[in-house]
User: Which sequence fits this backbone?
């Protein structure tokens, strides 16, 4: 099995990563339309993305590792790639928050 096949073997990993990216972009977008110091609209999508990132790293990726280990598939490179992809999906839009 190739590296690409092992990346997409767990369907919940791309879904959670896409949600992290969507919420991070929403927080970035809301930051440009906010003109006051007490703008709570940024906190909810950014906090949701951070919570999903924590769930991905602490729950989804370890489940992926356990299932890949039981199936005898390589899991170290794929799990590291998912963690790096998830962190970058959160961090890159947050760099552009106003």
Assistant:
């Amino acid at each position: 099995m190739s590296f690409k096949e092992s990346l997409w073997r767990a369907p919940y990993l791309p879904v959670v990563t896409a949600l992290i990216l969507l919420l991070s972009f929403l927080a970035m977008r809301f930051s440009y339309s906010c003109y006051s110091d007490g703008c709570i609209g940024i906190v909810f999508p950014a906090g949701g993305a951070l919570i999903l990132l924590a769930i991905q790293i602490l729950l989804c990726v370890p489940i992926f590792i356990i299932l890949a280990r039981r199936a005898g598939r390589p899991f170290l490179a794929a799990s590291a790639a998912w963690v790096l992809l998830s962190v970058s999906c959160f961090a890159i839009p947050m760099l552009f928050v106003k």
Summary: The chain has one domain: 12-31+40-95. Residues 8 and 14 are 8 Å apart (CA to CA). The mean pLDDT is 83. The radius of gyration is 16 Å.
